[in-house]
Design a protein that fits this description.
single chain; 124 residues; alpha+beta; Aspartate Aminotransferase, domain 1; five-stranded antiparallel sheet; 5 helices; globular
Length: 124
Amino acid sequence: MAAPRPTTMADYIEAAPAEGRPLLRELHALLKSVAPQANEAIKWGTPFFVEPRFVFAFSAHKKHCSFAPPAAALARFRKELAKHKTTKGTLQLPYAEPLPEGLIRKLAEYSVQLVREREDDAFW
């Protein structure tokens, strides 16, 4: 029988690889400190912060976690992200390395700003 799907961020983190849980807890706490008013939700099996639209998300993988801010945030900090592994929409954070708190804080704060400045009702 398959394990139940996580319904909270705490459940999601506990279901992640043991090696990654400390980094995931640290990332979750940092994101919550930047967006304390955002609602936490598991959408499509992934932890999301919404306000009521998408602010950012993160996900656990075998050897890293991914932080997914809006594309505009990644574009704005492209130079600072150059020394990190990124994909089209995420910053990959290896479990074996310290969390780049300053960079994540900048990305997260800018993401919150983007969401609050928007006037449409689109989720993304």
